[in-house]
Amino acid sequence: MYWTEIVPALVLGAVVITLPGLAMGAVLGLRGIALVSRAPVFSVAMIGVAAVLEPMLSVPFTPLTIGAGCAVLTVGAWGVLRLVGGRRGRPDGVPAAPLGEQLLVAGAVGVAFIGIFLRVKQGIIVPDALAQLSDVIFHLNTVEYILDTENGSTLTVGASVSPGGAPSVYPAAWHDVHAIVHALSDLPIVASANATVIIVAALGWPLSLLALVWSLRSGEGPPQSSRLSFYAVGGGVAAAASAVAFPSTMLTWGVLYPTMLALALVPAVVAIVIELIRAVRRRQRREITSLTLQALIGASAVALAQPSALVSAAALLLPFLLGSLWAPESRPSPRLRSTAVSLGISLPVVVGLWILVRPPRERWWERGVLGHGETWGPTLQEAHALGDFLTSALGSGSVIWVFAVLTWLGAWACWRRPGSRWLVIAWLFSGFLWMVADSWDFSLARAVLVGPWYNDAFRLAAMTATPAALLAGYGAATIADRAEQLLGRAGPRIPTGWVRGALAAVMLGALLLTSSSRPARDAWGPVSRDYEVHEHSLLLTEDEYTVLEQVPQHVPEDEVILANPWGGGALAYSMVDREVSSRHVSTMVDSLYAPIVEGVGDPAQRDEVCRAVTATGAYWYLDFVDSADMGGAQDEVFAPLVEAAQSGLLDPVVVEGEVGLYRIDFC
C-alpha cells in the first residue's frame, strides 16, 4: 500500500478531530488561536459523549448520527451560556494575534505535523502495517464491534471481547474516532488505525501544546509583547517533533492507542484549568462560566479516552497549584480569597484523582501491605534513569542532544520568570515519576506514586514529553531572542517584523532538521521492529498473513472461526470480517465453543462436539502460532485443536508452512 492512498483518510481525520470542536469553541466564546488549539479536545469529548448518549435513545452509531449528536451538544452548550450569561468576550484576555504571529503558529503546527509524520512513517514502515503487539487485537476488534453493533458507548463497549460478552465499561473515545475515520475512508482497518495515529499524534498533540503555550503567553508569564514569548509560541509547538518519548512509546508498547489520544489532549486541559484559576482570582464571572464548561468538556474527553491520563493532567498541574499558594498579596483581599477558594477545590480534586483513578491491582488499600506495584517492574539503575531523563532519552537508548540542550536552556529561561517556574517543576516532577517507575524496586511508596499509570515507565515517559517540548521551545526562543538583540545592535536598521520573521523561519527550520536527525531516527528503531513482518513476527508472520488473506474466500460470513487469540487468529474478526471464538487475548473460550475445543480429539465426545459445531457454526480453526509464547492457559486450552490439525483429523483448506486454516468436516 502506498502512502498517498491514506491522504484522504488523513484529511477526513483532521476534519473529525477539529470541526465539531471549532463549533463548540465558537459557542464558548473562543476565537483565533485559542479556538483552533482547543478544537481537538472539544471534538473528542463530543464524539465520546454522543456515542454514550445515542444508544440510550436507540440511535445507531454512524458518522452522520455522531455528527448530529455533536451539533445537538453544541446547541446545548449555547443554551447553557445564554441562560447563565457566561459567553466570553475574548478567548484569552489579550487582543487578537497579529498576522505575523498567526503565520508563526501555522508554520509551527506545520513543522510539528511534518516532523512527527515522518517519524511515524519511519516507525510503521507502510501505511497498512500491523503493530505486532497483543493489545492491537482488542483495539481493532473493538472498532469492528462498534461498526457491527452500531454502538460505541464507553458504558457497554467492553462486550467486544467475545461474541457472548456482557456489556462492560471501557473508555472508547479512541475507538469511536477510529471507527468514524474507518467508516468514512473505506480503508482496511489497519491502515485507518495508522491514519488515526498520525492525525492524533501529528495534529492533535501539537494543537494541544499550542493551547498551553498560548495560555502561558497570555497569562502571568512574560509580557505579551516580549520577543521571547513571540518565539516561544512557535518553538513550543515545533519542538514536539523532536520529543523522543511521544508518540513512539505508545506505538511500541501495548499498543496504547487510547493512552496516546488522552495524553495528546492533556496539554489543552491543563491550559483550560490554568485559565480558569486565573479567572477565579480576577473574579471574572462571565469567563469563569465559560471556562468551567470548557474544563468539564476537556476532562470528559480525557476520561473517555483513558482515565489514567486525568492523573497525568493533575501531575502537570500540581506545581502550578502549589505555586499559587504563594500569592503576592500580604494581606487578605478579594483576589486572595478567590485564590484560596479555587485551590481549596482544585487541590483535593488532584489528590482524589491520584488516589482513586488507578487500576484495581494498584489499589494498595485493598491489597494489604504486600505485593505493591506488581504490574510492571523497574528496568534501570537510578543513576542511569536520572541521566536518561536529563537527556530526554527516557530508556530509548538514543539522545537527541540538540533537543536536550534546548530543554535545559528553556528551563533556565523559564526559571528566571516567576510566572513560568511551575513548568520547570512540572518537567522535573514528571521525570521523577518516570524514574520511580523505571528504577525503584517494588514498594508501597512506588505503588502510591506511580500506581495510576500501572507502574509503567512507558506511560510516564510519554507524559514527560509535554513539558519537555515546551521547555525546548523556550530554549529555541531564547536563542532567537538573543539573536534579534544582537542583530539590532550590530546590523543596519531593519524593520523588526522582517527580522522576527526571518529568525522565526530559521528557528522552525532548525527544529524540523532536529526532528529528522540521526539520533531522532535511531529513537524510532524499536517502533520499526514492532511493525516488521517476517517469519518470527510476534503476532502475524508472513505465512499467517497469507492464510488470513484467503479466509474470506472459504469461510462463509455466518460461520465462526476457532482461534487462539495469542496466535493472532482473533484478528480475523476485524481484518477479514469473520466471527471468531475470542476477540481478545485475555478472554478465555466462550462456553458455547468450549465443548468443541475440549472434545475435538476425543471420539467419545464426537456427538457433543458436532452438536456444538452445528449450533454455533464454528466449523473452522485457524492454526496460528503463539510466537511470543505468552498465551499460557490459552495455549493449553487450544492444544486439542492443534493436535487435531496436526494429526489429520481436521480438513486442511489453506496451509502455508506450519500454519493454516482447517475445517471440522467429520460432522
Automatic annotation (TrEMBL):
Record has Transmembrane helix as a keyword: yes
tRNA processing among keywords: no
Residues passing through the membrane, by range: 6-28, 35-53, 59-81, 102-120, 195-216, 228-249, 255-276, 339-357, 398-415, 422-437, 457-477, 497-514
Pfam families: DUF6541
Keywords on record: Membrane, Transmembrane, Transmembrane helix
Top-level lineage group: Bacteria
Name the UniProt record assigns to this protein: Uncharacterized protein
Organism for this UniProt entry: Brachybacterium alimentarium
